[in-house]
C-alpha cells in the first residue's frame, strides 16, 4: 500500500452495492481515513489485486469492505467494490477462515449474508492510507438555484456537496474527447 492515495473512485455500480447494505459512500470513505485491517483477497485477484478491509466509520461502526487500488494518470485511488456493517458482537470469538471468492457476485453474496464476527481476522495487516492533501481552494459565486440543485444531487449520492463539485470537475478534466 505504498504511496499517497488521491481519493476514491465511485460510480453508480459500486455506490449502489454499498447502499444496498445501508452503507453510504461517505461512511466507506471515513473507514479509510483511520487505520484499517487489510486481508488479501488472492482468489479474487485474477484481473486486479483485491483486498478485504475491516475498519470503523467516523461514528464508530465496524464495516467490512472489499476494495482495490487503481491508478489513473499517475494517481492512486481506492475503489470500493462493496461494503456492509458488521454486527457488534465480541470480536474475540472469530474462528472461521474467510473464504476465497471466484467472482464479484460470490463476494457480494458473502458480504450480504455472513456474520463476520464468526471469522478469523488475525491474518490481517493494520494499514493507514496516506491521502494527498487538498491544498488549493476555489471561491466562486453561483446562482442560488444552481447551488441548491448541486446540494440536492450530492444528497441523493450520499456525499457532501463540495466533494460532488470536486468529482464533477475531475470528470470534466479527465473526460475523453470524441
Descriptive overview:
The protein is an alpha/beta fold and 178 residues long. It folds into 2 domains: 129 residues, no CATH class; 43 residues. 31% of the residues lie in helices and 25% in strands. The chain contains 5 helices and 8 strands. It has a 6-stranded mixed β-sheet. The longest helix has 14 residues. The protein is globular, with a radius of gyration of 17 Å. 21% of the residues are buried. About 3% of the residues have low confidence.
Write a compact overview of the structure shown.
The protein has 178 residues and is an alpha/beta fold.
Strand pairing plus helix content: what structural class? alpha/beta
Low-pLDDT residue spans? 90-94
Secondary structure tally: strands: 8
- Domain count: the total is 2
Oligomer: single chain
Order of strands, widest sheet: 1-5-4-3-2-8
Radius of gyration: 17 Å
Average pLDDT, to the nearest integer?
82
Helix content: 25-40%
Proportion of residues in β-strands: 25-35%
Secondary structure blueprint with pairings:
Blueprint: E1 5-8, H1 12-20, H2 25-32, E2 36-40, E3 50-56, E4 62-72, E5 75-85, E6 96-97, H3 104-113, E7 119-120, E8 125-127, H4 144-157, H5 161-174
Parallel strand pairs: 1-5, 6-7
Antiparallel strand pairs: 2-3, 2-8, 3-4, 4-5
Helix pairs in contact: 4-5
Features:
6-stranded mixed β-sheet; 5 helices; globular; two-stranded parallel sheet; alpha/beta; single chain; 2 domains; 178 residues
